[in-house]
Amino acid sequence: MSSTERLKRQQMESDALIGQLLRSREVWKNELQKLDEVKCSLPNLVAGMQALLAGLLPTGHTGKCQETLKVKVVEVYSVCNVDVWQKYKTRRDSIKRRFCSQSVIKSPEDSRLRANPRLHSLEALLQQAGSSHIFQESCNEVLLLHGTSAESAQAIALHGFHGRLAKQSGLYGKGVYLTTDACKALSYSNRPPECATAGWFVVTRALPGYPHFTDTHRQGQKRPPFRTLPNGQQELYDSIVAAPGIIYSKAAVARQVHWEYVVSDWQAYPEYLVKFQRL
Ligand SMILES: [Zn+2]
C-alpha cells in the first residue's frame, strides 16, 4: 500500500469514528430515559468557545464591551436534559406546523432576523468544533447567548429556563433574554457573589419563530403583541427582537446598542454551559 493510500485510508477511518462519536453525542435527544448526569464536560470545545467570544464582540463596541476580550473560557459542558428537550421540541414542532400551514417562511421578518451577521457565527463555530447539531431554519431556530451566574446556570441545566428564571420585568417585557453579542451576555453575568472573578454563558438553542421587531420599550408586557393573518385571524407573535438603533425611550432618547431576543421559557434549550474567568 502506498503512503498516499495509507493516508487516505486513515482519513476515512477517522471520519467514520468522528461520525460515530457525533451520533452518540446527540442520541440522548431521541431517548425517553433520563441520563444520570445532565451535564457532560467537553474540553475539546474550550478553545473554540474562546475564539468565538472574540468574534461575537461587535465592531465599534468600546468601553465596558471590551471586557469581553479579558474573558478566559475554562470549562464547557453539554446539557443533556431529556425532560427539558422534550418540552422544547414540542414547542418547536408546533411552530413548524404553523409555519408550514401558513406559508410564512419568506416573511419580511425572516430577512431582518438574518441581517444580524453574528447569528451564524455560533452555528459555524460549533460545526467546526465537531458538533452535529442540526438547526431548523424553516422555523427560525438559532443559537444565542445568555449570560448568568453559577447558581442560575446550574438551575437552567436542571430545569431549563422555566419559571423563576425568566426575567419578569425586562426592558422588552417578560421572557428569557438572549443575544448574539458576547459583551451584552457578559453584562448579564455581572452578578454577585462571584462576578469579580468568574461567570457563565449559556449557549442556547432558541426559537424566535415569527418575531415582532419592536421599535420601543415594552416594559410590563407579559407577552408579544398580536398580528393579523392573511385570513383576518389574530395570532400572537412568537418573540420580541430589539435590533440595534431603535430608540427605546423617547424621553431620554436612549438607543438600543445590542441585538436582544426575548422568547418564552420553552422556546429556549440550554445546549452548552460555558464557565469563564475574568483576567
Ligand atoms: Zn457591546
Automatic annotation (TrEMBL):
Task: Write down the superkingdom of origin.
Answer: Eukaryota
GO CC list:
nucleus
Report domain PARP catalytic positions: 1-279
SUPFAM superfamilies, alphabetized: ADP-ribosylation
Q: Can you provide one Gene Ontology molecular function annotated for this UniProt record? A: NAD+ poly-ADP-ribosyltransferase activity
What EC number(s) would the UniProt record show? 2.4.2.-
Swiss-Prot/TrEMBL keywords: Glycosyltransferase, NAD, Transferase
Q: What InterPro entries does this protein map onto?
A: ARTD-AVP, Poly(ADP-ribose)pol_cat_dom
Q: What is this protein called?
A: Poly [ADP-ribose] polymerase
**Which species is this UniProt entry from?**
Polarella glacialis
